[in-house]
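Justification of computing resources. Each target in the renewal requires a structure prediction run like the one illustrated here; the chain below, 120 residues long, is used simply to show the kind of job we budget for.
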Amino acid sequence: MSDKYIEKFYDDILCKDIKILNEMLASLSSSYRLLVGAAEEFNRISLVHRHEAEDAIDRADELGDIIDDVERELKKLTKLYLRELVWKIEIQQLYNIKLSTEDSSKTIMGELIEDIIDKK
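Resulting structure tokens:
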């Protein structure tokens, strides 16, 4: 496998993981809002037993813990991906500087050679 293929594979996996976690976070957040709303309604209904309302609050709380876990992982992967992008940009800039330096040295060498040829 070439380095470019490995790099592209790694980027694709990292982007895919970020996308999946982002979609998961959005879905879980919507579910969390619904659970919190249901728990609030249970608290307002006088016929609901206290343990049912507490169970609804516990479910919302447990989902909130899962959302926190997903958010932490998403933050880690996003930071990693951004570091990789900065690294690639720096490599590209160094490569461009090297190319421009080589081009200018070729131009200078070409002029020197032309001067030598003209003098003969």
